[in-house]
Amino acid sequence: LQPKVFVMENVSGMIKGGYKGKFNEIMQTLKNTGYNVKCKLMNAMWYEVPQSRERVFFIGIRNDLNKDPSYPKPLNKVITFKEAVRNIKTEDVPDLTPSVKKYVHLLKQGQCLSDVGGKGFQTVRIFENKPCPALTKLKAGIGFGMLIHPQEDRVLTVAEMKRCSTFPDNYNFLGKWIEAKERIGNAVMPKMMYHIAKHIKENILSD
Fold first, then answer.
1. What is the strand order of the sheet 5-11 is part of?
2. Rg of the chain over CA atoms, in angstroms?
3. Region for residue 198 given its phi and psi (left: phi exceeds 0; alpha: psi -120 to 50; beta: otherwise)
4. How far is CA 198 from the centre of its chain?
5. Pair 194, 59: CB distance under 8 Å
6. Which residue pairs from 21-29 have beta carbons closer than 8 angstroms and sit at least 24 positions apart in sequence?
7. pLDDT tens for residues 153-184?
8. Helix (H) or strand (E) holding 21
9. Distance CA 62, CA 136 (A)
10. Cα–Cα distance for residue pair 154/149, rounded to 1 Å
11. CA-CA distance, 80 to 184, in Å (whole number)?
12. In the chain, how many H helices and how many E strands?
């Protein structure tokens, strides 16, 4: 027997530009399997995740249940990076690459390397009083495509990335720093999924 409900997550790019055709194909395929399916672009920062992270969420409800998919309403307050990492333990991080280290001290909060003469618009010093930008799995050297701490000239620790993604402090990512970053970049944010699952339980499967 097919599950009553399914949830799928993907990057926001799949509903933009040249990927729209593929998106429509995916939607039709899902509907052909016997589900009433809807899709919505959601930002994790409105669901208790201190990270501005847009992702596409598909929710499908088996046709025989005769219900329409729906989504949790956004909350009113966001959690800032500063709030998220309060009282966090210090950890070692990898050294920045020389080409990043050369410019990183010039970065003000919100600026990227390209703003100060370097190369790399995705290497950004984050705002401490805003949610963290989206953590990604980019691997182009330590610093390139990375987020820089608001006050210190370094990348974020694994502990800071976990806080900004709502993984518990005691959740253990095995392997090196870059491997932990890749896994966090690929993950569905736990608190985000909690709000979606709670909504499904209380509003779709409550009967």
1. 5-11, 54-62, 35-43
2. 19
3. alpha
4. 19
5. no
6. 26/58, 27/58
7. 999 999 999 999 999 999 999 999 999 999 99
8. helix 20-32
9. 33
10. 6
11. 18
12. 6, 7
CB 40 within 8 A of CB 12: no
Q: 99 with 140: CB under 8 angstroms?
A: no
Parallel/antiparallel/unpaired status of strands 132-133 and 51-52: parallel
Instruction: Give the tokens for residue 132.
Output: 């963290």
Q: What is the pLDDT of residues 118-130, one digit of tens each?
A: 887 788 999 999 9
Whole-number Å distance between alpha carbons of 108 and 197: 38
* 38, 69 contact by CB (below 8 A): yes
Q: Dihedral of CA 147/152/154/159: which sign?
A: negative
- pTM greater than 0.85: yes
Nearest to 28 by CA among 69, 54, 65, 58: 58
Residue 144: which pLDDT band, with cuts at 50, 70 and 90?
low
Query: Are 30 and 23 spatial neighbours (Cβ–Cβ below 8 Å)?
Result: no
Burial 2-36 (b: 16+ CB within 10 A, else e): eeebbeeeeeeebbeeeeeeebeebeeebeeeebb
Of all helices (H) and strands (E), which one includes residue 54? strand 54-62
Q: Where are the beta strands (DSSP E) in 63-180?
A: 124-125, 132-133, 147-148
Find, among 69, 40, 36, the residue nearest to 57 by Cα: 40
